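Lab notes, practical 5.
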Amino acid sequence: DSLGELAAREEFPESWRVLLMSPNSNDAISGEREESWMSRLSPMPSEQSGELTRLVLTEILPALRGRDLNHFRDTAAAYGNLVGDYFAQVQGGRFANPDAAALVKHLESQGVRGVVQSSWGRTLGGFFAEAFQTDGFEVAVHPRVERARRWWLAFHHLLQRDEDIVTAKGRLAR
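Output from the prediction step:
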């Protein structure tokens, strides 16, 4: 099966950063477990895949091109939520990891916008215009993570090319 053609490619602004948060556990959904879950998924409704396409082409890409970080964050999170809702049929909720769901809920209660998730909701991310603009995010996330000691956090430049990733801040919690 063909995955299709690349519809667009856009570089992230040099000043944007991403804060990655990932659990310190080895409960990754991969291998046989992932194959089992994937085999139980019902086909994605065309309305849902259409909405995902619309979000990318008419919201996310234009926000990225226009360097509109707030709109980019909000629509990237909406995209991730729709995908997470689709996978809920096998993972039990929008996130496969209940701690991720609790952390996102906490961040949102603190006013953090646009938290996104990786596949199966294992790693969470938040986008920022500059590394120092993350102060509010750290205030919201760090105490909860520090208490739990189940997540690691790292600030990164956004990857433009494989060799470009640079860690700006290491582990905050183990």
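Observations recorded by the TA: The helical segments are 31-40, 46-65, 69-91, 98-109, 135-148. The first helix runs from residue 31 to 40.
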